[in-house]
Amino acid sequence: MPVSGKRTQSALVETTPKRLLSHLLTFKNAVRLPIIIWQALFFIAPLMFMVAMSFFIVRNYRMTEAFEMKNWLKMMGRDYFWDSYGLTIGLATLATLVVMTVAFPAAYTLAFKVSENTRRWAVFLLIIPFFTSYLVRIFSWYVILAESGVINAMLGYIGLGPYIMLNTKFGTIVGYMTLTLPLVIILQTLSLANIDRSLVEAAHNLGCRPWRTVFRIVLPLARTGLIIAAVFCFILSFGDFVSPYYLGGSKPPTLPILIVDTVKSGQQWPRAAVVAVVMMVTLFIVAFGGIAAAYRRRVR
Amino acid sequence: MKPDRLLKWFLYGYLGLVFVFIFSPILFSIIFSFNSDRFPTIPLGGFTLKWYETIWQDPDVWEAARTSLLVSFSVATIATFLGFTTAYTDYRYRFKLKPLYLALILLPPTIPLIIMALAMLAWFAKIGLSGQVFSIIIAHTVLTAPFAMAIIRLRLSQMDESLEAAAWNLGANQWRALRRVIIPFCRPAIISSFCLTAAVSFDEFAIAWFISGLNKTIPVVILEIVTGNIDPQVNAIGSFVFLTSMTLVIIAQVVLMTKNKTEKEKHG
User: Fold this and answer.
1) Which of A68-72, B75-79, B135-139 has the weakest average pLDDT?
2) Which of A59, A230, B206, B263 is spaced 20 to 30 Å from A210 by Cα?
């Protein structure tokens, strides 16, 4: 067969070292390879090593490479681990529901009720918080929400309060909102602005009431983008240690706080790695579930 | 028509409140940095510059500022370079496993920072790079390269593909075409990617806190002050960080916008 003959020949030619080198040093590889090498060394390798580390053992305050289930059995057998796990999932879910609900009317307004120019400015303003220190914003909330802080002082003028807001779940959710609300509004606005206006108008012309239009036309059409926004919100809240620590009081700790405490208090890195691997598996399940739901065909 | 108008104003009011929520921590942080009370609240205390004086005289803050600037400048350079090569590869080539290739660069921001921090800490300890300034640089580059890639890729998608082909036909080799056609076209995106990756790196604290060792960056110093007690110094440092980041973001935005505008005008 001529085809296979040709292939053998070219394979032969390419295997000489010099040819191989010049074959590898092409323009294409020069632009393609840097990121592959970089990410393999400094992104994939660290994550793989962390998974391996969850099987290492600590002896005499020194970490030794091994393959033992000890850390896994220890962490999985502890009630406080499962309490933290439940709390973290619960808080992240609550934050996602709250943020998605709070963001929607704002995104709806930006997508349908303002000019394109205003929308562009609003999106630019919403990008700003990403580039301001999250820590400083959380510290600011700490001062605002404190028992003698700004909000309670204002409420005091009208004879209310003081309310305890720090070291509560409310505080944690405010922190999560600080982190995720701008991003969620941007993602929701983009997905709402992209839906076909004529479908909305058609529903309106056919006598569909505004609320019904939102639930039956707008939400299903924007589903993909909305689900992606929710997934991002969940991932960010799930992995954040600052809000539950400084605003939520960290009792009981969430999983990220567990990692911080374990690492900062000694040599028990392998146990922290167990927590991290559990978190990653959870997030993969959530992300894939979300993406599957986002791109699923509509069943009638 | 009346209930429609009412609804519209209600929505505008709601949008305003959401923006108040988003920006009040930033605004209060700036206001409190000039406020004399140790525990700031309403009504405000007197005007003071003492928090700024404190940080100005603090050698640790200066040291951290130097480290931060060095880190974010290096990160911006490497991340923009890697982002550019990746964006260009995605723009020009099709190959097997390309989705995997793109996932490789775009995935890092979806992994919680605390997990990246632990993984980086362990890996750098393993390969003998722990506690160095350049370990922070490496980690932040992994984190920010996707942003650089996205910004430059967006710019490349506005490019007329025949421009590069024309350069080849006129006898330019691939490197020359890249240097003379592609890079000048991407310049605004390259500048804004440089500014934005620098800004992200300048604010990142989780990874820096885990792996910095003795080479603290500004956010790590903030984290340590915040963990200790309530100290309005944080507001002063925070305002300085905010000013730096905002300058970078605004430069990035202005460069991108003016370039797009002049091109639109050119094409009529």
Assistant:
1) A68-72
2) A230
Contact A132 B19 (CB under 8 A): no
**What are the chain B neighbours of A105 within 8 Å (beta carbons)?**
11, 14-15
Query: Which tokens belong to B2?
Result: 């009346």
Domain B59-267 sits in CATH at: 1.10.3720.10
pLDDT range class, residue B190, cuts 50, 70, 90: very high
Domains of chain A: 2-53 (no CATH), 70-295 (1.10.3720.10)
Between the alpha carbon of residue B7 and those of residues A169, A214, A250, B11, B13, the distances in Å are 32, 14, 41, 6, 10
Q: What is the pTM of this model?
A: 0.89
In the stretch 4-63 of chain B, residues with CB closer than 8 A to chain A read: 7-8, 11-12, 14-15, 18-19, 21-26, 28-29, 32, 39-43
Average pLDDT, chain B: 89
The per-residue pLDDT for range A90-107, each reduced to its tens digit, is 999 999 999 999 999 999
Residues of B numbered 120-159 whose beta carbons fall under 8 angstroms of chain A's beta carbons: which are they?
120-124, 126, 138-139, 141-142, 145
ipTM over 0.85: yes
Residue ranges of the domains in chain B?
59-267
Instruction: Answer yes or no: are the C-beta atoms of A24 and A37 closer than 8 Å.
Output: no
Whether the upstream peptide bond of residue B43 has omega within 30° of 0, thus cis, is yes
A223 and A206 Cβ atoms separated by less than 8 Å: no
